[in-house]
Amino acid sequence: MLILDFCNITEWSPSTVLDLYKKNGVIHSRQGAHDGFEKYCLSNRGPKSLVFLLVKASEIGPWLSEDNEIVSLAKWLRVHCALSPFNDGYSEIWRHLQQSREEFYAPFLDKCSKGDLDLDFINDILADFQEIGFSMAFSGQPDKWDSKSGITWHFRDDYLETLEDHINWEILSNFLAQKTGVFKKVRK
Fold first, then answer.
1. Separation of alpha carbons 39 and 41, rounded Å
2. What average pLDDT score do residues 1-13 get?
3. Which of 38, 71, 114, 137 could bridge 152 with an S-S bond, Cβ 3.0-4.6 Å?
4. Which residues are within 8 A (CB) of 28 and not within 5 positions of it... i.e. 6 or more apart?
5. CA nearest to 73, candidates 46, 51, 95, 99
């Protein structure tokens, strides 16, 4: 599970997070979908315009614009504020992710390991998804069928934006699919 892999990270680094992305299929951009893996990281705790690169500049191929056009890295960087591991302030992403882990996901898993599924936490996640444009679809043409939960969703954007969004989606999908037993099997 993504949430377990995330909470078990012992050392934050671009390669660690990139491995986490690849193992769990975390995609949050057209470029990531085009390449089959994501090259940058965003957190719910940081500004959405600030991205943290997980690969070296030499490993960056063509980037895709919002219109799905291939653009140069220079043009892409003008649109997004991007930091590489060599920039001042890059370590902020690790602070953001560690804060999410310590304040939200580790306590949630601790409760689960004691047999307590925190429904308030899950309701908060559902409310957050509704706020960013997700809604359950009961009629009409759905935008997406989620094979994990069996729920159809309408949503505003093509991709979940941040790593935390992906973790929250995993939690919510398991809950809606009535696979809550997976949380009760969690061990510290």
1. 7
2. 93
3. 137
4. 38, 42, 159, 160, 161, 162, 163, 165, 166
5. 51
Q: Is 166 exposed, middle or buried (0-12, 13-18, 19+ CB in 10 A)?
A: buried
The single residue listed with the structure tokens 């590489």 is: 84
What type of residue is 141? Q
Q: Count CB atoms within 10 A of the CB of residue 128.
A: 15
Interatomic CA distance for residues 134 and 48, integer angstroms? 18
Find residue 70's DSSP bridge partners.
64
Structure tokens that stand for 105 in this block: 């996901």
Structure tokens, 6: 């995330």
What's this model's pTM, rounded to 2 decimal places? Answer: 0.82
Distance of CA 73 to the CA centre of its chain: 23
DSSP at 129: H
Position 59 pLDDT exceeds 90:
no
Three-state SS at 71:
strand
Helix pair angle (14-24, 163-176), 10° resolution: 30
Q: At 83, is the pLDDT very low, low, confident or very high (cuts 50, 70, 90)?
A: confident
146: enclosing H helix or E strand:
strand 144-146
Q: Are 82 and 53 in contact (CB under 8 A)?
A: yes
